[in-house]
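Most newcomers find our protein records easier to grasp once they have seen one. Nothing more is needed to start thinking about how sequence determines fold. Here is such a record, shown just as it appears in the course material:
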Amino acid sequence: MTENGTAPSQQPVGPPVPGWRQRPRPEPRTFAGRYCRIAPLDPAAQADALYTALCSESNRMRWTYLLTDAPVDARAWQSELEQRALLRDPLFFTLFDESRSPAGLAAYLRIVPEHGVLEIGHIHLSPQLQQSRGATEAQYLLMRHAFDDLGYRRYEWKCDALNAPSRRAALRLGFVHEGTFRNAIVYKGAAATLPGFRSSMRSGPRCATASSDGLRQTTSMRRADSVIRSPVCGGPSKCQRVRART
């Protein structure tokens, strides 16, 4: 390929990616934020608290757009989490709220190291964590790790087209809507259309600003003065400090 984006045959190709190498796969690890903590899924230590946070009768409506139904009891939940904990794609993490209690789940999935692409999904938040500054910070920490630490180029978000809160969350976090995959999957006996969202190294500043704005909004009533680190365009290990004054 030549420098101007053409192959030796003079046919057009995409922009060059100098020095590209396959990226490492994400591994289980802990993230410490100011308003949240993220840790590898550990059913033995976390299943009971997650069952209380996510599986109560009042939370059943939060399972509508998840791939599985709510467990019938705590034992079934324990078994399901044990199976999830064995996986590496999706790679599950437990999200802790400001009280340091397990309050949600998220996972890296569709991980393609040779192309530097992965997706964030299986997001399941308790009412206490939903729309909180901790939830915003958790998404930021996972995104930053993919871009800055692992050097991935593309970070995706997909959801059921009928899941309006998830679509709004993606846009609030700075993801860009790229298109719609119609009748993409079947789950719970119904076809689902999936809107696709993405962030990339080039859109990193936009996502950083959106994450900072989200923290500003969720801390405005607390008069917080938070400091976060945000991914910026330019590749791995390049971050800017963003002060979110409220």
In short: Confidence is low (pLDDT under 50) at residues 204-210, 218-246. Strands lie at 31-32, 37-40, 91-96, 102-112, 117-125, 154-158, 176-187, 190-200, 225-231, 239-245. The two ends are 49 Å apart (CA to CA). DSSP finds five helices and ten strands in the chain.
